[in-house]
Amino acid sequence: MSFKHLMARKAASEAANPVTLPHAAAAPAAHAPAPAPAAVPAPTAAAAPAHQARTAPGATLIHGANQRVEAAQARVRQLEAELADRPPLELPLEALDSVPGRRRRLTAEEYAELRENLRHNPLVHPVVVRPRAGGRFEIVSGENRVAVYRELGRTTIRVSVLELGDREVDRAAFFANLLAAPLPDFEKWRGFAREKDSSGATQAELARLAGVPEATLSKLFAFARLPAEVLALIEQRPESIGANCAEELAKVCTTPASVVRAVEAVRLVMEGRLQQRQAAAHVRSAPRALKPASSPVRINAGRFRFAELSVGESAVRVNFSAKVDMARVQARMEALLKEMAAELVQESTKAVQA
């Protein structure tokens, strides 16, 4: 997540609980004292008559909330303008200091991907630092990018320099790590697909430039094989379906009926009623069309109907029209079924011996 978005979230909090925020330094070389801090005034709700406070407290709360939202939006615009007027600088890596416990933990695979990505591509999001004594700078956000640049033998890195107090810098670093969620596989695929379309690069070339295994990229492009109806649903919540699930779904979406079942499976996953690994099995387990039941067979006793026999795929139903001894019927049916079971065992034994 960019620091711009982080500061935007922070502004919303400041609007509700104003604090004094020092202005950022224009450049680290100036070392000029920061201007006097300007306090952001707390929004005040319009005074309401006493009878309104007793009868409609919700209206007063909503009015105050609207004022806080408007103040937050104004503060966001102010911070965006300040960041836009403060272009990134190129600082030597040897001038940057790390703070223990501030670096975001990445898996070995994630760190390797970051390293290969930065080996082939420019740094898009500058590292955020704050000036310290002796011409040095403390890293606020971007510890892993700095570590990768050092491993790659680089000597400088692009940074944004901000004047932040101790409490503010710790909070900024914490929320930068907390809110930096991994990009969903669906969004990764869309980004790679756009790059492939615009540059004409092959998947192998894209994998090399991004620093990811080609097999990983091939799995991401499984989204491209999904029906449009399924993609439209995934787009609503991209984080709900990963590349592994997309690859399995693409294999079973072969008929119009299976597409309908795939949409149903994705919706169940999004609702938490089905796990991703069960989605493809849900599509494959579509109920089979039952064989039509045979026409009922009427059994007469002379001129009168004695019973009616209905036979389905795996069931037999007998409706007696005359009064019969059901115990005798049960005994006769049990004897018949035991005889048929014995015949099945004999046939199975012969088949094994053969």
What does this structure look like?
The protein is α+β, with helices and mostly antiparallel strands. Helix content is 51%, strand content 12%. It has helices spanning 3-16, 50-55, 57-84, 108-120, 143-151, 166-178, 185-199, 203-210, 214-220, 228-236, 243-252, 256-270, 279-284, 326-353; strands at 20-21, 38-39, 89-92, 96-97, 127-131, 137-141, 156-161, 297-301, 304-311, 316-320. Helix 4 (108-120) crosses helix 5, helix 8 (203-210) crosses helix 9 and helix 10 (228-236) packs parallel to helix 12. It is elongated, with a radius of gyration of 35 Å.
The beta-strand count equals 10
Shape: elongated
In the CATH hierarchy, the architecture of the largest domain is Orthogonal Bundle
**How many domains, in number, for the residues?**
4
Question: Which percent range describes the beta-strand content?
Answer: 5-15%
Distance between the termini: 69 Å
The total of helices stands at 14
CATH secondary-structure class of the largest domain: Mainly Alpha
What is Rg? 35 Å
Strand order of the largest sheet: 3-7-5-6-4
Kindly state the percentage of residues in helix.
40-55%
For this structure, the CATH topology of the largest domain is Arc Repressor Mutant, subunit A
For the report, how would you describe the main beta sheet? Answer: 5 strands, mixed
The overall pLDDT average reads 76
The topology string of helices and strands comes to HEEHHEEHEEHEHHHHHHHHEEEH
State the secondary-structure class: alpha+beta
Low-confidence stretches: 11-53
